[in-house]
Amino acid sequence: MKNLKVSAIICAAGKGERAGFSKNKLLTPVAGAPALWHTLKKFDIPEIDDVIVTSSACDFEEISSLCKPFGFKTVEGGKTRTQSVKNALNSVTGDIVLIHDGARPFVKKELILSCIDAVKKYDSGICALKLTDTVVSAAFGQITDRLDRECTYRLQTPQGFYTADIKRAYALAGDKTYTDDSAVYCEFISPARIIDGDEENVKLTFKSDFLRDIPAFSVSDGENVGFGVDVHSFCEGDKVVLGGIEIPCGQGLAAHSDGDVIIHALMDALLSSAGLRDIGHYFPVDDAAYAGADSKELLKRVILLLREKSYAPANISITVQAEKPRLSPYIGKMVEVLSGICNLSKEKVAVSAGTSEKLGFVGEGLGICAYAAVTVKKL
Ligand code: CTP
Ligand code: MG
């Protein structure tokens, strides 16, 4: 039998309304990275040849930037999951396609592989779990019927099919809406084959699902430490940028970028914790692209560099030494900015500030110095 090419569609074009966050639940940080990133990582395996991720128009930039390091394609989804899958199917090149909810980041490799095997053996593979509770149907608060528990299942994803079959099914479905892909397959092609799902392969649906203590995400080893320092001298100007916040000051800080010593020290600490080179290597001072650069954008790039090495910040501790400006009114805002970019809760980011008792270059008011210490965990 010729080697069959396998594609995967990951559905991420929803709004996540039931989770009640201010944006798509899949972009919410879980264990150091957006939830969707964990799902994408599970499909970055040699047995899957290409991956297509659906995204709504408003999340497109963020989702494509998550997909890029994996080499996954992002396509625009539709109003319903059914429409999103239909759009994504147009980009599928594999003989077999697995369709998976982006909201199921706990899927294990064994489940993905058994789904592919089921398609080869039985033409389809739908991950399913037997119910343990008694199931009834009810109307107006009264039980009307009982389902036989022995033949009642909950369906999960991934669900796998031959691409030609599922494309034909979706074409025949027209504009009808379904809650999963097996429903489309069963209606137009043939009864789909169920295989054993996994209790841990839960779908993140409500806010409480994001607070679960899921073993797959708990980190037991791989903690690293990083340390970074940066200094900039004062120059003519009227404000400084520190920790991503503009602060009025009788002078500015001389720099090729925006001169944010706090973020620069932090970036060096993060890079060193993951065994990477220093910021000068990634953002050279003689590169015009970084003239006046917003250091927050550079920090976002550093987080991506770490993620490529499977590291995420675990906690951050920063100390600034400055004779001026007075920093205490701005510390809270700095923590907010830094924790947001680093996918951390505010409790995991500390910024403290002090003067240098008129001693040394800081004490003489010649410049500002920042030190950053971080720990990072293995994703
Ligand atoms: N999905 C999609 N396109 C849509 C709707 C949903 O690709 N138009 C995706 C979601 O991003 C999710 C998966 O389908 O990964 C399962 O859907 P669900 O858990 O219902 O997610 P949401 O629709 O985002 O959540 P909610 O229904 O609470 O708004
Ligand atoms: Mg939904």
Q: What structural class should be given to the helix and strand makeup?
A: alpha/beta
Task: Indicate the proportion of strand residues.
Answer: 25-35%
- The domain tally reads 2
Q: Counting H and I runs of at least 4 residues, what is the number of helices?
A: 11
Roughly how many Å is the radius of gyration?
25 Å
| Approximate shape | elongated
Helical content class: 25-40%
Low-confidence stretches: none
Strand order, largest beta sheet: 5-4-1-6-10-7-11
CATH architecture of the largest domain: Alpha-Beta Complex
Characteristic terms for this protein:
binds cytidine-5'-triphosphate; 60s Ribosomal Protein L30, Chain: A; 379 residues
Description:
The protein is an alpha/beta fold. The chain has two domains: 6-211, Alpha-Beta Complex (Spore Coat Polysaccharide Biosynthesis Protein SpsA, Chain A), CATH 3.90.550.10; 223-378, 2-C-methyl-D-erythritol 2,4-cyclodiphosphate synthase (60s Ribosomal Protein L30, Chain: A). The chain contains eleven helices and 18 strands. A seven-stranded mixed beta sheet has the order 5-4-1-6-10-7-11, sandwiched between helices. A hairpin with a 2-residue loop joins strand 2 (29-30) and strand 3. The longest helix has 14 residues, at 109-122. It is elongated. The two termini are 37 Å apart. The structure holds cytidine-5'-triphosphate (CTP) and magnesium ion (MG).
